[in-house]
């Protein structure tokens, strides 16, 4: 006998059913920061190529990268680098088979977020 309510149910669980968890958010951020690092790396390569090309071209590239928007992009790239690094360390811990219980996974997630912010601020202010 056919299920008459079949059309009213979702086909599979998705974002409308599950609430975001810290581990899922940090996993998504790891992927986003990985892609964002590519943008920052390409800008640095462009700046270096401009330096090797000539003074006029370098001045233009340098003006773009040292503008307000360039500073914001480089700051976010630095944060992405630290975030991605700490998330990688968390995954190395998980690769050993440890840290899968919910309290430890939550602590590791917060450590990645807070650690990346603090390391970024330390790098910008001190170095």
Structure in words:
By secondary structure, the protein is mostly helical. The protein has a single domain (20-126), classed as Fumarate reductase/succinate dehydrogenase, transmembrane subunit (3 helical TM bundles of succinate and fumarate reductases), CATH 1.20.1300. Helix content is 76%, strand content 0%. The N and C termini lie far apart (70 Å).
Count every helix, treating DSSP H or I runs of 4 or more residues as helices: 4
Count of individual beta strands: 0
Shape by Cα distribution: elongated
Topology as a string of helices (H) and strands (E)? HHHH
Distance between the termini: 70 Å
Query: What portion of the residues fall into strands of 2 or more residues?
Result: under 5%
**Named CATH architecture:** Up-down Bundle
Oligomeric grouping of the chains = single chain
**Which CATH first-tier class would you pick?**
Mainly Alpha
Q: How much is the radius of gyration in Å?
A: 21 Å
Q: Find the structural class using helix and strand composition.
A: mainly alpha
Mean pLDDT: 91
Question: What's the structural blueprint in terms of helices and strands?
Answer:
Layout: H1 22-53, H2 55-65, H3 68-95, H4 102-126
Helix pairs in contact: 1-2, 1-3, 3-4
What's the short story on this structure?
It is built from four helices and no strands. Helix 1 runs antiparallel to helix 2 and helix 1 crosses helix 3.
What are the key terms here?
single chain, mainly alpha
């Amino acid at each position: 006998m056919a299920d008459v309510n079949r059309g009213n149910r979702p086909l599979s669980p998705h974002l409308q059913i599950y609430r975001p968890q810290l581990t899922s958010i940090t996993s998504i951020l790891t992927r986003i920061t990985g892609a964002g690092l590519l943008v920052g790396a390409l800008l640095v390569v462009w700046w270096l190529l401009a330096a090797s090309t000539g003074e006029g071209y370098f001045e233009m590239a340098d003006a773009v990268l040292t503008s307000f928007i360039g500073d914001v992009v480089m700051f976010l790239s630095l944060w992405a680098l630290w975030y991605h690094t700490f998330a990688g360390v968390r995954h190395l811990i998980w690769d050993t088979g440890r840290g899968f219980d919910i309290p430890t996974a939550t602590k590791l997630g917060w450590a990645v977020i807070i650690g990346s912010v603090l390391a970024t601020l330390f790098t910008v202010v001190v170095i």
